[in-house]
Amino acid sequence: MAKYGVPSAFIDLVRDKNNIVDIASKYMTLTKRGSNYWACCPFHTEKTPSFSIKPDGQFFKCFGCGESGNVIGLVMKLENVDFLTAVEILAKNAGLEMPSEKDSELLQRQKRERERMYQIYHLTTDFYHDNLKKYPNSAQANYLKSRQISDEMIEKFKIGASINYDDLPRYLLKQGFKADELYTAGVIGKNEHGMYDFFGNRLIFPIFNGFGDTVAFSGRSVEASPEHTKYKNTPQTPIFNKSEILFGYNFLRELKREHMLDTVIIVEGHIDVIACHQYGFTNTIGCMGTALTTLHAKRIKQLADNVILCLDADSAGANATYKAIDTLKESGLNVKVLRLDRSKAKDPDEFLKKYGKDEFMAQLTSAMDCVDFVLTDSLKKYDLNSNADKSNYVNEALNYISKFSTPAEREIYLVELQKIVKIPIDILRNSMLTQTVESKILEATEPAENVSNKYIQDCKIMVLASILYKKDINIDEVSGLFASDDELSDLYRFFKEKIDNHQDFNASILFDNFDIKKDSLIDKVINYSFSPDEIHKREMADVIANIKRYNSKHERAKLHQALLNATTDEDRMKYLKALNEFDQNNKENK
Prior knowledge:
By secondary structure, the protein is of the alpha+beta class.
């Protein structure tokens, strides 16, 4: 078996040779308390350490933001690199050589392809950038002058220009690249006339990853043309996923390393980002006109806790703001919203040019808490003289208040809402409580026997934790718990295979074999808190006895339902006989 072309045995060796405590200590100050090590979490801002490393399981868990993983996952998150790169870093640290081509031809091929693609993007970036100097009177160069983009920003963001459709293909082919490589990288297109520059005759904005390597381009048309869409972007490639990368993110990493990052400003377009940087707001990034994703939010959360959304004030920008609030808040970020007055400026770039740095700073300072923003902005959609509109507005407002605020904050927001809708606060409070309870019930509801299913889930977690941490348990005795097709059953089968093959395992290995999200069921298994040994033994005995009783009751109910649903005498006799045999067997086994 292999992951990303790396043999599983080598991944196990890398993990075993890199003690997570030693690796973590290179990035943060650790303090030992009891059997574990503690530190302030590197993925969110905090004053009291909630980041814990368990040496016996070789994994980390932050009880503040919920991040967890093994030593490979830790390096991935700290260095913002992919799995293969993290393995390479740790292999080098342990003095291990990555598998040779003979050992892993797939790995080597993938690595060569990625390296070639990075080279293509590096050379293409320089080619486009040099065009601005070669053609100072080009439409692209003149456009930058009209937008008052400084030479310093042109250098910082490596802005470039594609002057025609032919020069880039010729240049890259001369550098020894094959046509198929250029097509795959998304820099060259082809039609009935042959090869052409995919971004031909456009202003070029390179898109950088966290390390400052170009991984994509965004090309802007600067001349109105029916043949040109306004923007043209690199498609998905092996090194570019638009759901993960934000324009200007690499500069945030530099600020974080210099301990100069507290708040991230999110704007919409490339020019807005560049203008903000030009005026000194270097903590600004852009979503490039795409919806913010959970992956985007996680990337931001790794660097800062606070976000100010400053998206365009048109209808599309308003919708994007609402969606972004949901995504960012669900990732644990503190979100404020700056809505510029459209009568003054349509975007941050125009505002900065008209009113300057100090006034923009004043606007940022007065940005509204996201719930306050929703309370005031969503009101524009409703006529409070209409009972139906008022009801819809209250429901929308209560939804945001309940989702995104602490109990103390809720009382403050409810007071504000009461002032708007003139409904007694006790009624609003009860309505929100009802809404919250209904939501939680809906989230917890499963197709059958809700209470029993919750109990069984808890039992599964305790049983699997007991197996993981080598408690006294017979893995075959609890197999009946794991007949379903779900992640806990998958984990049971993983343990069973390891035990049957006499292979050792710990919590660390799970992170390379399962997608373990914050507060997921497997996360609960890994972080299970056991009762004292004697009590735990009694709990396990009760669990096994109760599960046997539940399984018996559940099986009888299925037979009984089948009997009720039978439509022929033959089926009725079959299920009646099965039911009688079931009752007789259970009576004898009591």
